[in-house]
Amino acid sequence: MSQPSYSQLTLNGLWKNNPALVQLLGLCPLLAVTASTVNAMGLAAATLFVLVVSNTTVSLIRNVVSDTIRLPVFVMIIAAAVTITELLMQAFSYELYQILGIFLPLITTNCIILGRADAFARKNPLPAAAYDGFIMGLGFGLVLVLLGGIRELLGTGALFADMQLLFGPDAAQWRWEIFSVDYPFLVAILPPGAFLVTGCLIALKNQIDLSLQRRARSDDGIKAMGSKRVRVTGTVS
Amino acid sequence: MKWLVSVGLGGAVLALFAAITSLAIGWTYLGTQSQIELAIRRAEARQLMEIFPAGTHDNDVVDDTFALEAETALLGLRQNRRGYRVREERRVIGVILPVTARDGYSGDIRALVGVRSDGSVAGVRVVAHKETPGLGDKVDLRKSAWILDFNARSLTDPAISGWTVSKDGGAFDQFTGATVTPRAVILATRRALEYAQLNRATLFETPVNDP
Predict the structure, then answer these.
(1) Is position A64 within any domain?
(2) What are B87-107's pLDDT values in tens digits?
(3) What interface predicted TM-score (ipTM) does this complex get?
(4) Structurally, how many domains does chain A consist of?
C-alpha cells in the first residue's frame, strides 16, 4: 500500500469514506444520542479523542506486537482510552456524562475505532496514523453534530439548548429559538427520526456525488452509457 | 517446542499491555477521583437547593441524610436511597424524600419531594424520566413550570380526592396529549406527603446524638 497523502486522508475522512455516511460504522451511538446538538458534540468529542489516542498508540507499537495477538492488544488500548475519557468527562462535565450514559463506554465497541486501528494505524507511521484518527473522528463528529442540529431544530424549533453542559454557565444563553410551535415535529427527536434524518443525509451525499460525477463526465465530453451503478460502500484505505 | 516460545512470548506481551493500560487507568482514576466526587456532590446539592433554596436553612443538606430502604411503603423506591433533612438552628424544618413513580408512560419517573414540617410541599423536582419529549416531559421544570403548582400544597389542600389531574376531577392540570405522566407525578407526590404524615415523629424529630 502506498503512503496516502494528508490531503487524501482529509478527503477520505470527511467525505469519500466518511465513517458515518459511507462506512455506516458506529450507527448505534450515532442514532441514539443525536436528539440534541449538545449531546452530539459531547459524544463527537469523546469519540474523536479516543480515535486519536488509539490510532497513535497502535501506530507506536506496530512493530512490537505480532499479528497473532494484535487484536486483544488493540482492544485493551481502546478500552483503556475509553475508560480514561469516561473518567475525565465525569470529572469535568458530570451532567453531560449522565446524559450520554451508556454510550460513553459503548465507544469501545464502536467499529470505527478498531477499524481504523487495524486497517490504517498498524501499517502507518505515527503522524499519519494520528492525523487519520483525527480526521476520521472529525468526519464522524461533523455528521453527529449535523444530525443533532437538524433533529433539535425540527423537534423543538430551537438550536444549541443546554450548551452550558459543555461550555460552562455562560453558554446557557446560547439557545437560539428559530421558530416556536405548540406541536413540534416530534418524530424528529424520537428514535425513528434518527433513522429518517440519517437516511436523508446519506441520500443527499449520494446525490451530490452523483451530480459531481455527471458534471465531470460531461466536461470530458464522454456520455454515460450502460447500466448505472451507484456505489454505496467505500473502499477502506 | 517453537510454538511454546511463541505462545509464551505472546502471553508476555499481552500481560505487559494489560499492566500498562491498567496503570494508565489507575493513574487517571487517582487524578480525577476528587474532582468526580466534587462534581457528583455539586450536582446533588444543586437539585436539593432548588427545593430548599440557600438562606432558608442553615445545615449542609447534602450530608444530613437518613436511609430509606427499597420498597418502603408509599415511596415506590426500587433501591435503597437516602432522604435529606433540612434544618434551621438544628430543628428539622423539612425533609427531602426521593420517590419513584412506577406508573409513568414509559418507565419509572424519579423525583424529589420536599416536605415542610407542617406537612406542606416545599417543592417537587423530577430528576430522571423517559417520558415523551414535547408531551410528557413538561413535568421537567426546564420544559414547563407545571411542577411549581405543587408548592405549598398539602394533603388538605386540595383534599385527597383532588390529588389527581383535572380530567379525573382533580386540582392539577394535565398536559394536552399527555395525562398519564402528570397523573403519575401527582400520585407520587401525594404518597410522599402521606409517608411524611405517617412517619412525622421519626422524620421531624431532632436526633439527640446530633452535633
Answers:
(1) yes
(2) 888 888 999 999 999 998 888
(3) 0.72
(4) 1
